[in-house]
Amino acid sequence: MKKTNEYIESVFTSSDPLLDEVLTSIRDNGMQQISVPPASGKLLTMLASISGAKRILEIGALGGYSGICLARGMAGGGTLTSLELVDDYANLAKSNLTKAGFGDRVTYMIGPALDSLEKLADRGETFDFFFVDADKENYENYLEACIRIAEKGALIVCDNVLARGTVSDESKAPTQNTGIMKAFNETVSNHPKLESLLIPVGDGLTVSQVK
Ligand code: SAM
Hints:
Elements: H1 2-12, H2 17-28, H3 38-51, E1 55-59, H4 65-73, E2 79-84, H5 87-99, E3 106-110, H6 113-122, E4 127-132, H7 139-148, E5 150-159, H8 178-190, E6 194-199, E7 205-210
Parallel strand pairs: 1-2, 1-4, 2-3, 4-5
Antiparallel strand pairs: 5-7, 6-7
Helix pairs in contact: 2-5, 3-4, 6-7
The structure holds S-adenosylmethionine.
GO biological process, one term: methylation
Keywords: Methyltransferase, S-adenosyl-L-methionine, Transferase
EC number: 2.1.1.-
């Protein structure tokens, strides 16, 4: 998997100074380097663009790396709503999205994402594209909350579903996310409201379409 991903990154991604600056800003602020890798970011841009996404919801902003990738793919006039627990992270993400030219099209909601999702549902807001990349133990809750506010045909993309390869490779020592992600993948695959596939790019992304 590692070699395959290195190959994909080397052939299908190229230098991106703006995203490199985001990574530098994350490092300079003493934050963990846990943004999506470049190939996953490119896939997010392509999926948003191919699906014509106009109202994107992201769960887990960090420094705005995936937010920029999503915003690059969204349709003209589209908007990104991003849910982030940590105020300082959302501020950095907002500043990076502004540098990328998307400052007026992104809104951050600070606090536990499940609370923000409830607020969005209460307001009757709906979305046509979701990217889930926050605390793994809440993935099943996020999935249900996203389905509740999804438009028909919406895409729900969830990151880290391979748990560093441990969900499929028994020779690797399991991590605390291995069992969580195995169970999550089963839920996604068997969900009556979703048509889904796992794409083994980066740490693995499930891509689901809401029926
Ligand atoms: N999607 C980002 C990217 O690729 O640029 C990386 C997101 S990072 C893996 C996970 C983020 O989720 C962190 O910024 C963390 O603060 C946030 N997070 C963790 N638990 C959360 C929660 N309960 N509600 C909202 N955000 C949460």
